[in-house]
Amino acid sequence: MWQLDLARRIVEVGVQRGAEFVDVRIEVHRSTNVRLSRGQVEEAGFSSTAGAGVRVLYGGSWGFASTEELTEASLTSALEAALSMAKASASRRREKGAVTEFGAVKDSVKASVRINPLDVPVEEKVKLVLDADKRIRSREGVKDDRVAYMDTVFAKYYVNSEGAEIVIEGARVRATAYVAAARAGVVTPAYERVARTGGFEVFKEKDFLAVAEEAADRAVRLLEAPVPKGGLVTAVLDHDLLGLIVHEAFGHTAEADLVLSGTILTGKVGEKVASELVTIIDSPGPEHAFGWTPYDDEGVKARDVVIVEKGVLKEYMQSRETAARMGAKPTGNGRAQGYSYAPLVRMRNTYMAPGDWDPEEIIQETKEGLYLKKGLHGQADSNGEFMFAVQEAWEIRNGELVRPYRGVAVSGNAIDVLKSVDAVGKDLVIESPGFCGKMQIVPVDGGGPHIRCKIIVGGR
Q1: For position 330, what pLDDT does the model report?
Q2: SS3 labels along 324-342
Q3: How many CB atoms lie within 10 A of CB 224?
Q4: What is the phi/psi pair of residue 117, to 5°?
Q5: pTM above 0.85?
Q6: How far is CA 381 from the centre of its chain?
Q7: How far apart are CA 343 and CA 230, in angstroms?
């Protein structure tokens, strides 16, 4: 492939110029975006981007530059710029950078794509969004809605000075529906999405119109629901809310670059940080997951990272640089938003492993508490403190769901919540797709089974 040949020549020049490590990433993306609000199409467009990022380690210091022109002259200029930056900062760097070697991997990987989104007429994509909007707005009580569709078909070409040459090709599709119902001063939001690595076939397998309807029905139904009393409660969490907590409140604290800066998990490998029922994994798969990452953006073959095993912290997620600093092995978590960004330590598909409870049994064995479904938005920090909005809650009384609640938020500390887990379901679902925004935006996924824990609920 000419892209690999071009990248190889740039890497060779970088090595000749004295760089300790050189890598080149060439990427091509073709994307469609359709966005609609309150029945009006606000955007319907196609974009095509291509470019290359060149990274060097010289004198223990990093330099990075990118270009939109895929020519030898332009990539050579990017290499020179990266070398200049590395040289300029090398004498001022207190701690010399290094990379953990991975080896001369040569591979080509393709995601499973049965219906290429590029082969689907844009009219069909716009119709999907319009039809979903029509169903949403047919529900009495809906006052606002936003529906969006996105697809991207991509190819990545990676070459480094270790001799690695990797090609990754694939596609991602995503459709989202946000709904707000309102009545007598009460506003209830709801959100649903369908998103996977793969092609347009996802919408043949999962009915997005029904999913959008579900969001509208939830928003309208909760208009009549009361607000619960706040406090520490026994709660059963579904896979979606669990996935949000595992990713935002816990997962980020196990990313090695943040660990080096200081998080609640710094220095705690080998210590108990959760119930013995809890195992948390960050995985490059499964293949359909939105954060599918067979190789990361540093040429490392991605593997499962067992962050927590039976309640004990086992390891952190690593890039090449953090692995070198911590005396660990790279895990395939060096990811970049695109060719114009240098890789950071990022999650991929982060989830809690299943247990041995039937999900229905967890509720039936709960005398009093709440069943919490669907996360919405919120925030978390490096100490594991979090607060998230919840779309829907149900009161559990004597093992039965007796009435819904609205206006629910959950908060607390991720470690405290995970240590309180006393039931984990068999029903693993990895289907909480989205984009994570840690300085850069990358696709991620996650989830888990139903669990029971103690958590703080905000209400009246």
Answers
A1: 96
A2: HHHCCCCCCCEECCCCCCC
A3: 12
A4: -55, -25
A5: yes
A6: 17
A7: 41
